[in-house]
Amino acid sequence: MRNHLRRCKGISNKMVSKKQKSDSSGTMVSSPSLARPKIDQKALRIAIVKMFIAMELSFRCIEHEAFCEFLSIVAPSLDVISCTTLAHDIYKLWDTEREKLKEFISQNCQRVCLSSNTWTSSQNLSYMCLTAHFIDNSWKLQKKVLNFCQVTSHTRKTMAKKVELNRVLTLTVDNASSNDVGIQYLKKRLMSWNSLVMKGDYIHMRCCAHVLNLIVKEGFKDNIDAILRIRGAVKYVRSSPSRMSKFKTCVEQQNIEYKGLVCLDVETRWNST
C-alpha cells in the first residue's frame, strides 16, 4: 500500500491540496469557491436609486446611520453616496428611461392617443400628468406616462408645450373652456410637423368621466340639502375614534353585512360618492 501511494501521483496531489486547506492548528481554511462574490457596484447603485423611487423615501435616508451600517455589511466595497448624488442619479435614470420609452414607442406603434390632467396639491402647487395610450405591434393596449411635472398654471397651452410626439391621434382633456386654447396651439404645432390626421378635426376628445361628473352635479342641485346633511353626518362620525366605535356598534346591532366604513366624497373626482 505504501509503495502504491508513492507511485500514484493523483492521490498524492489530492492529499497535498487537503493539507493546503488546513492551517497549522488543524482548522480548515475556507475554499476560494465559498468566498463572497464580487458585487457590481453600478448595478447595486441603480437598484438603490430604484428602491428610493418605488418606496418614496426621503433622500436624506441615504445618509442615515442605519442605512450606512446596512450597506457596510451587505456591500463593504460600495462607496456611500450623498443625498445630492442620489438626486443626480435619479435624474440620470429618468433620462435613460425616457430614451428607452421613446425608442419603444417609435418601434411599437403608429399613432398615440394622449390624455392630460392638471391639479393643485395640498401645498398649493400645480402638477400636470401627460399619458400616452396606444396599441403595440402585438395588439396589446399600452399606457405610458410621458411627463409628470410641476407647472406654473393650469392653462392647456402649458400642456401642449410638453407634447414632443409628432404622431398624435387624439388628446383627451376635461370639459374646461381653457382647453380650447391649448388644443388650437397643439394643432398648429402638429400641423407644422405635417403629422395631423384629417387636419386635426377630431384631435380634441372630451373626457366622458368629467362630462358625467358635470351631469351628476347638475342633478344633485335639487337635493343639495340632503347631500349636505349626509356629508355633515359623515364628518361627525369620522371626527373622533369614539364616535367611529359607536357607529361600528350600531352597524353590528343592525346586522349590516357591508364591511366598508363611511367616507367623505371628493368633489373633483367623478367616481367618488
Automatic annotation (TrEMBL):
Compartment(s) where it occurs, according to its Swiss-Prot or TrEMBL record: Nucleus
SUPFAM superfamilies cross-referenced by the UniProt entry: Ribonuclease H-like (SSF53098)
Membrane-crossing residue ranges in chain numbering: none
Keyword Transferase: no
Keyword Nucleus attached: yes
Source species, domain of life: Eukaryota
InterPro entries assigned to the protein according to its UniProt record, in alphabetical order: RNaseH-like_sf, ZnF_BED_domain_contain
Alphabetically ordered keywords of this record: Metal-binding, Nucleus, Zinc, Zinc-finger
A molecular function GO annotation: zinc ion binding
GO cellular component: nucleus
Protein name, entry field: AC9 transposase
